[in-house]
Amino acid sequence: MTAPTTRPLLARLCRDRRGTAVVETAIVLPVIMLLLFGLMEAGRALYQQHTLAKTVRDAARYLARVPLACPATGDANWATARSTAQHLAMTGQLTGGTALVSGWTEASFTVADPACVNWSGRAGQMITMSANVPYQDLGLLGYLGLGPMRLGASNQQVHIGE
Fold this sequence. Notes:
four-stranded antiparallel beta sheet, about 160 residues
């Protein structure tokens, strides 16, 4: 082709707008998909964190109401109550059931040994329950090169031993 014949072809290609929507979609779609999956991942993480905080609080409340001697570590019921509280935190039920979130185990939930404290002339103890569990992601974190995350929660209750 000679130079005079290529100019009309080039001018015609510059004016042609038929493929612009496909090109714009190809540029914007990956960004939108990343934002969409990122929001889903963040929502899932918030849900699991909320569930964890709620179950740890419920298990600590359960332990605060179990009749125990002061200090609780000297009580024969302490080991059973501690195990039941760990199971309650993992499953949301006192007996039976499966983990609320896959990957949670009873070993992920810990109860600190309470010590007797004197509050205004009355003996009492503080129950502390905490958890450190793996976050079950949708796979986006691994795709982005981020390592596995862990979620944590802790709750303290004054033992009232009803």
